Amino acid sequence: EVLADGPSMEQGELALGQNPLIAFMTWQGYNFEDAIVLNERLVREDVYTSIHIEEYDSEARDTKLGPEEMTREIPNTGEDQLKDLDADGIIRVGAEVHDGDILVGKVTPKGVTELSAEERLLHAIFGEKAREVRDTSLRVPHGGGGVVQNVRIYTPENGDELAPGVNMMVRVYIAQKRKIQVGDKMAGR
């Protein structure tokens, strides 16, 4: 018969964490000091697999050379990198992303002084102004891949408060499934 329940208990059962059967013993020095030896079955059956959600922000601002623009039309970018972007250059929910993939396509105007030597030569030869923008897209950082869970778009037109000079902000949430591995911390309280 249960005498008392706590905030994380119901009928004597803990509602949080995992409760594996453990044994304490020395094992050839592998569990020296604070080390723990785990059974391979715990990893295989995802007993200690966790889901981490990271958020990434991209802002379109007003610059001296003109406003930044969120778009799917990014210079020097192949169709394979744009396949999961919508018409506004924003990643679709449910897309699986990896290191370096584009989350939000964004271009920033660049001045004539920022043009490369090749661009200045083409400009001098043809006398036309190519679209003078540079790619400032939000990309997945190293080790940050996963599945896009949610995308939120904030604009002043929708009544959202943004920092001065910001015309639009896109926040992307990515969930990453991580299995327990060497170096992960465990608590035994």
From TrEMBL:
Pfam families: RNA_pol_Rpb2_6
A GO CC term assigned to this protein in UniProt: DNA-directed RNA polymerase complex
GO molecular function per UniProt: DNA binding; DNA-directed RNA polymerase activity; ribonucleoside binding
Entry superkingdom: Bacteria
E.C. designation(s): 2.7.7.6
Keyword vocabulary terms for this entry: DNA-directed RNA polymerase, Nucleotidyltransferase, Transcription, Transferase
GO aspect biological process, one term: DNA-templated transcription
InterPro entries to which the protein is assigned, alphabetical: DNA-dir_RNA_pol_su2, DNA-dir_RNAP_su2_dom, DNA-dir_RNAP_su2_hyb_sf, RNA_pol_RPB2_OB-fold
DNA-directed RNA polymerase subunit 2 hybrid-binding domain location: 9-189
UniProt-recorded name of the protein: DNA-directed RNA polymerase
Lineage: Bacteria, Bacillati, Bacillota, Bacilli, Lactobacillales
